[in-house]
Amino acid sequence: MTRQLRSQALRLSVLLAALAAVARADMSDLVFRIQASNASGAGAYEVYSSSGAYDTGTSTYTWNLSSPLTIQDTTSGAPVATLRSATVVVRGQTQIDINLGVDSGSSLTTFLIDGPTLDVNMPAEVSEGRASASFSVTDLDQNFARLVGLGTSGTGAYQAFYNGSTRFTHLVAFVFAGTGATGTGSQSDPPTGYRDIPVTVDQYRAQIGFTLTGFDRASTTTTFGVIPEPTTLGLLALAVLGLLRRR
Q: Which helix (H) or strand (E) holds 229?
């Protein structure tokens, strides 16, 4: 076997082994956490992996909130906000979907939502990512409704991270609705397809954080996917086959 062939074959075997590890990626035990705070207090609700179900046929994990629940202040028990609906779906260890609906309390309410963390080992040569988020706000108290992403001005209400705190993207910084109306905002990064992640991805996760005006409603649908880029693998495999034919 020539040195070039050995090098290409070794590179292909390393990438394939890494991708096999992706298929066995580990998911954190905590799959959903929502924190809500306002003038009435602060409370949280957590969900662990045992509350959902894993479909081995499709390699998909799913958790759904069975019914709306009130988030209460941890000390006084006063109602802070309502979690109307929530779903977490992990698809084939390469995509995290977080969808939810909330109602704010009697004053400006801050929400912070975390989904699961996926531990993977995807080489830089094949790592690609894509994220999308759609938000809607509805005015329920006949004045206006406003959703603003947490953090510095312009920070998106949806953020996707890899390797701890490295931010892949942030989406939808502001949504407004007039009296009795509903407003929406959506973004995707990239607009179509996927974009390269220039380093080995060891883990990835998503977070949703925003403020919502009092007595109003917000909903969101989000996706963050990190996948192996098929073209690189295909070209490398063809190169190895070509070298074998020439021998």
A: none
Instruction: Give the mean pLDDT per block of 10 residues along the chain (247 residues).
Output: 52 49 73 98 98 96 98 98 98 94 98 97 92 98 98 97 98 98 98 96 97 98 88 44 47
The gap from C-alpha 178 to its chain's centroid, in whole angstroms, comes to: 29
Please give the C-alpha separations between residue 149 and each of 98, 152, 159, in angstroms, as whole numbers: 16, 8, 10
Does residue 190 sit within a domain? yes
Distance set, CA 176 to CA 22, 101, 186, 220 (Å): 40, 16, 12, 14
Query: Considering the domain boundaries, does residue 246 fall inside one?
Result: no
Q: How far apart are CA 192 and CA 29, in angstroms?
A: 32
For residue 15, being part of any structural domain is answered with no
The letter for the amino acid at 150 is L
The reported pTM is: 0.86
